[in-house]
Hints:
By secondary structure, this protein is an alpha/beta fold.
Amino acid sequence: MSDDWLKNPLSLFDVNGKVAIITGASGAFGALAARVLAGAGCRLVLTAGKKTELDAISAECGGDVLGINIRPSTEENCDSIVAQAVAKFGRVDILVVASGKNDVSKIHEMAPSRFLDVMDANVTQSWLMAKAVTVQMQKQGEGGKIVLMSSARGLLGHPAGYTAYCASKAAIDGITRALGCELGPTGITVNAIAPTVFRSPLTAWMFGDDEKAKTTRAGFLARVPKGRLGEPSDLAGPLLFLSSRASDFYTGHVLYADGGYTAG
């Protein structure tokens, strides 16, 4: 890299014109990723299983957006997503895997099929999308950016019945590190964002003023050095960093967006 970036250091974060695939675009993090990368000038390929929500976020992002109403649940689906992205935009530069699920249950009450469903949604589908995009990026020969979705629960346990979710996010951390090592020589970086609780439709109740929300929030925040819950903007900066050339020397990392929660 030349020193031209010193004239405009913010150019390191420029993703204008890049082609980004975002899976799970109808979910909280997927929709945020779509808005952030659209605002930064990316051309988007958004996928989700919920067509109404997918159409809504696609329309909100405007510009060059291709919506694909399928989940990355099979190798064929993932290959199709990449093929449609290439047919529309000619290439793929960024992959953000935001699809996934949780299923909270005590282990003695959880059927093996429910455990495997979480592992499939969070681990296998991430692996399949990373595989399909890696093949395309290697054909292009210009590197690329893969951003996976982990969680503070990939490092820490939870007493409420999170064996499936914690195991799945720990596996994402392992894939991130292994694939970062494997793809390092190709110029493709692989990193993960690992948030704790941040504001979304699913967690909105924790931000409320009722007694249940206050009690739950106080117990949780007692372990968060920053003393507050996460906001979508707390994830936007890390996402842009990991999607841009500013992170070219960073790979195999799990970036905790957690207010210091995992530090202590």
